[in-house]
Amino acid sequence: MPQFHRIEINRTEWEVPERYQMLTPVGSGAYGQNIVRISAVDTTTNQKVAIKKLARPFQSAVHAKRTYRELRMLKHMNHENVIGLLDVFHPSSSLEDFQHVYLVTHLMGADLNNIVRTQKLSDDHVQFLVYQILRGLKYIHSAGIIHRDLKPSNIAVNEDCELKILDFGLARPTENEMTGYVATRWYRAPEIMLNWMHYNQTVDIWSVGCIMAELLTGRTLFPGTDLRFRFLSITFNRLETNINILQKYPYYCLCVFSGTLARADIHQLNLIMEILGTPRDEFMQKISSESNYNAICMPLTNSLLRKLF
Hints:
Elements lengths: L3 E6 L2 E6 L2 E10 L2 E11 L4 E9 L5 H16 L8 E5 L10 E7 L3 E2 H7 L4 H20 L2 E2 L8 E3 L5 E3 L6 E2 L16 H4 L8 H16 L9 H10 L3 H7 L4 H8 L6 H12 L4 H6 L3 H7 L5 H7 L1
Antiparallel strand pairs: 1-2, 3-4, 4-5, 5-7, 6-7, 8-10, 9-12, 10-11
Helix pairs in contact: 3-5, 6-11
């Protein structure tokens, strides 16, 4: 049984094995206040590591499932662009005292959210970062896993611009029936927003597209706190801003996009339906949220029709 020592950092008590020294705060994770990270030095390897504390991971069945999934998946991850699990420990001496779980991973310098807020990235940087995201995502998808919560704060980068995908608390294997409320709102694919239960790995690709746009422009592509507002933003938002971004790239790059960009606002909704399919009656009957239902069947007012045509 390893010897543990206690230390308080930012009003949070940590109880870690003595092999981990020089503990300093790093930041918060995907669970908000329920997860905190610190950096430390593993004295057995003299390596800097990140320690992530899952506070009350078993307070509900949902939290217990997320904890189990993250541990199970991280245990098997072995890729340059995906965070790996170095150690797992808990200070509890009995099952009754089992309240906290600590995960030890490689230490990364910053996440993409901090980077995009503090500096403007060159096109070469964006290209290299997106390439690494897709490379790591291909590895994850090849294992039949959907991450379901890709966002800038869940992607870490070190000083050498090496990237790793983090936080698998919402990840799960591809199944016939999925849960609808996943992914941070700004990076959520339309099929999840509309409460579709049979989505697949393509929801992660949508999130990567939103992240890439944010890296290029320095701002969120589809902001908003209301589901209806975000759906309108995705389907009816004008393309001038996106076209201005694309115009600075070589002609051959524009040719790639020319076949996928909708020609007018109203065509964007048609394009989504063309790719994802038109909702059937049985699907509409399964929509539990009235706001989601209204977002799909939104009435077209005279003013909106004049704007569209």
